[in-house]
């Protein structure tokens, strides 16, 4: 079945361009469009898209709040949100990731990257390179706790090895790099990452990285 995509951007010309790119792919179907966050919420309820391509800066309701409401707790099978931004390291990107976005993409990314990003997010993975995760968190360290706060109880449900894996995810390592660092297979690393996400109630490795910083497990800038 085709991946159902909702386009959310306050610029009609951009939406038209995205639609042309996506509708050229047999496995993608644009099911609707919205010009702001409030319209996006209505469209998500009515159309049940698999992926929402979400602009951040929009009138009435911005993409961060719309993402929070779309992916928040209590939603049955929430759509995945892929955030679009004009600027690399937009100040709102970290907030969008906290709100539940599965990643972000620059608006001027090549068409093939846009298509692949939607496929990746629809499959349940995070569309955000580990190096970008680290760079974002370090860039906006002032948004995050100092690390002096008590460690959340949920972290105590993790095994020692799972904590190690979570720290390495937060520091921007790929599964292959984590496997090499811990002298285990990539399959083992994927298993550990899956356990971490399940135990902490997180959607993907992007949220896991944000959680590690916010909980004080990893400090911004730490090696």
UniProtKB/TrEMBL annotation:
Keywords: DNA-binding, Phosphoprotein, Transcription, Transcription regulation
Lineage: superkingdom: Bacteria
InterPro entries per record: CheY-like_superfamily, NreC/VraR/RcsB-like_REC, Sig_transdc_resp-reg_C-effctor, Sig_transdc_resp-reg_receiver, Tscrpt_reg_LuxR_C, WalR-like
Record domain Response regulatory: where: 4-122
Entry keyword annotation includes Phosphoprotein: yes
Coiled coil: none
Domain HTH luxR-type residue range list: 151-216
Pfam family, one: GerE
Positions of transmembrane segments: none
DNA-binding is among the record's keywords: yes
Modified residues (4-aspartylphosphate): 55
Protein name in the entry: Response regulator transcription factor
Species whose genome carries this gene: Streptomyces prunicolor
């Amino acid at each position: 079945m085709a991946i159902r995509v909702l386009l959310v951007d306050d610029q009609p010309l951009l939406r038209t361009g995205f639609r042309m790119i996506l509708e050229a792919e047999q496995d993608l179907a644009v099911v609707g469009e919205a010009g702001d966050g409030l319209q996006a919420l209505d469209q998500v309820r009515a159309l049940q898209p698999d992926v929402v391509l979400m602009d951040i800066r929009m009138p009435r309701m911005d993409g961060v709040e719309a993402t929070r409401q779309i992916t928040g707790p209590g939603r049955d099978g929430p759509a995945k949100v892929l955030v679009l931004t004009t600027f690399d390291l937009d100040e709102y990107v970290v907030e969008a990731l906290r709100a539940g976005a599965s990643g972000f993409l620059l608006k001027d990314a090549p068409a093939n990257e846009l298509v692949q990003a939607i496929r990746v997010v629809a499959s349940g993975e995070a569309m955000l390179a580990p190096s970008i995760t680290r760079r974002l968190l370090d860039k906006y360290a002032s948004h995050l706790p100092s690390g002096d706060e008590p460690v959340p109880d949920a972290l105590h449900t993790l095994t020692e090895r799972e904590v190690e894996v979570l720290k390495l995810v937060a520091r921007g390592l790929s599964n292959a790099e984590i496997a090499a660092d811990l002298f285990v297979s990539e399959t083992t690393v994927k298993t550990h990452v899956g356990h971490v996400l399940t135990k902490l109630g997180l959607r993907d490795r992007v949220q896991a990285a944000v959680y590690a910083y916010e909980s004080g497990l990893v400090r911004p800038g730490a090696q």
